[in-house]
Design a protein that fits this description.
Elements lengths: L1 E4 L4 E6 L6 E2 L4 E6 L3 H30 L5 H28 L3 H10 L6 E5 L8 E3 L6 E2 L2 E6 L6 E2 L4 E6 L3 E9 L3 H9 L5 E5 L7 E4 L1 E4 L9 E9 L1 E2 L27 E5 L7 E5 L4 E3 L2 E10 L5 E7 L2 E4 L3 E5 L15 H13 L13
Parallel strand pairs: 6-16
Antiparallel strand pairs: 1-10, 2-4, 2-9, 3-8, 4-5, 6-7, 8-10, 11-15, 12-13, 12-17, 14-15, 18-23, 19-20, 20-21, 22-23
Length: 369
């Protein structure tokens, strides 16, 4: 989120967009008319100083022409006054520039000898990245930001630096991961090694994981309450529609963009830090836990009517992520056996329910795979 300040003091005379629209860098946002009393008073003061300068220059020229050498004291006084006036003119011009009047308009005020009002257009600032990719047209790269929050209205007076609106740049997002402080060494190792991949998965929305990201930063402060360290990785967003932001006219109505990834989404960051040999990697849903025991359901028999009989097989669980479980190859399970690839916890819940009701455990419980 970035704030757009008023670069000039003036009155808002036009607002080009409304909150929620997608706009290009360089697109017009506001027209500001530089007609505040401070601006007019500053120009009037400058014009008076310019008149004084011209008067002093005429006086000096008259003395040099008609009284050369006869009025040295008067000549010195006029020189001092002229130097002071030139300094005042310089300072007054700088004050007008601070109020936001462009240099070319300031030159017109000086040449035309009258105060001028001027409408300036505030535009979307440039962005520092290469843009985003359209989901419908993967080869097409777009650069635009979202007009997020509007703080002013037409006719309102604004001062220099006053916030006009917020722009939200969703083209590039940052994932923040929180790890226990005990894992600081792993994070720092991944930060130093550009070959260490970072993987991000999202909760239950069907989005494909983000692969091969890189850590950009690890915070130097540990959260006092959670005892965690935050780390950050950047990635490029994807816009779901292929529409192109265009000037807001009757032919080109406001554009509202839907993004694939949005701030606030919950996700899980996985950082590769160790290669483990001689293990089995299975889907996370293939492993169930029951109090002190972890196990999988091994297929032992397929009946003639198409049913399947499963057996609880204890395993040694080494690691578990949202998608995968890593089992020790210690002889509890053997390569080549068939197991239930998902739903192990549901099978276990069904068995526990049958056992709790006093019924015998049905070896056919579960579902087909």
């Amino acid at each position: 989120m970035s704030k757009v300040p008023a670069p000039y003091a003036g009155i808002i005379t036009k607002i080009y967009h409304e909150p929620g629209e997608a706009v290009h860098p360089g697109a017009a946002l506001f027209d500001v008319t530089l007609s505040l009393p401070e601006m007019m008073d500053a120009q009037t003061a400058l014009l008076k100083l310019l008149e004084t300068k011209e008067f002093l220059e005429r006086e000096i020229a008259d003395i040099d022409e008609n009284l050369s050498g006869l009025a040295p004291q008067r000549r010195r006084e006029l020189d001092v006054r002229l130097k002071e006036t030139l300094i005042d003119i310089r300072d007054q011009k700088n004050a007008i520039r601070v109020l936001g009047l462009p240099e070319e308009v300031l030159q017109r005020v000086e040449s035309e000898r009258k105060p001028l009002t001027h409408a300036m257009t505030v535009c979307v600032p440039a962005v520092s990245h290469e843009g985003i990719v359209s989901d419908q047209n993967p080869g097409e790269v777009k650069v635009f930001v979202v007009f997020e929050t509007l703080y002013v209205k037409v006719g309102q007076s604004v001062s220099v630096g006053e916030t006009l609106c917020d722009l939200c740049d969703l083209c590039e997002l940052t994932v923040r991961g929180d790890a226990f402080a005990i894992n600081e060494g792993i994070l720092l190792k991944a930060l130093k090694d550009p070959e260490t991949p970072v993987r991000v998965t999202f909760e239950g929305n069907g989005k494909a994981p983000l692969e091969n990201l890189r850590l950009r930063m690890v915070e130097s402060r540990i959260d006092e309450q959670d005892r965690t360290l935050s780390c950050f990785a950047d990635f490029r967003n994807v816009v779901l529609d292929g529409a192109e932001p265009k000037p807001h006219t009757e032919d080109h109505p406001p554009l509202y963009v839907h993004w694939l990834y949005k701030p606030g989404q919950r996700c899980q960051m996985e950082i590769a830090y160790e290669t483990v040999e001689n293990v089995f990697v299975v889907p996370a849903g293939a492993v169930a836990r029951n109090v002190h025991e972890t196990f999988v359901f091994e297929l032992t028999e397929e009946t003639s009517c198409g049913g399947k009989i499963w057996k609880q097989t204890p395993v040694h669980l080494l690691f578990r992520t949202r998608e995968h479980a890593v089992l020790a190859n210690d002889g509890t399970v053997k390569a080549g056996i068939r197991i239930a690839a998902n739903g192990a916890s549901f099978i276990q819940d069904a068995l526990n329910a049958q056992n709790g009701s006093g019924a015998a455990i049905d070896p056919h419980a579960g579902h087909n795979h």
